[in-house]
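Quick one: DUF1934 domain-containing protein from Dialister invisus, structure tokens please.
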Amino acid sequence: MFEERRGTVEKQVMIRCKSIQRDERGKAEEVVLETPGVYGEDEDCRYLTYEETSLSGMEGTTTTIRMYEDHVTLSRQGSFLQETEYRPGIVAKSEYITLAGPMEITVSSKEITDTVSGGKGQLRLVYDIEMKGLFSHLNEIIIDVREESESSWKSEKN
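--- reply ---
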């Protein structure tokens, strides 16, 4: 069921976020997070908001992903702070603030596939990420969104 709030429509959903990192040698590391969240629509974008857990290593952080017509933004608030824009063909620099201090990251977006609508669908981001002086990886994030009542996924919080 949708809930309207100040020009915004929101509904409870289940979010499955699969992150695949490939290093310079092609070795892949995969992390999957399944958690309840909120799907919303406002005048200029659709968005997903969820709480990070110990599984992602960012417990105490709220992540919001905003999906626009031609790009996606990721915002983290809490224990970790991050504002990153994903726009195919564009290289974006941003600051990633962790408990260990701030780090500069560079993201070169390769591909965005977005079928999320009405609280269902999939968002796929493919991008190169470089954390200054530490690493350079090819990342792929696949986010599946389902209405909470339709999902059989178990939340880490349950």
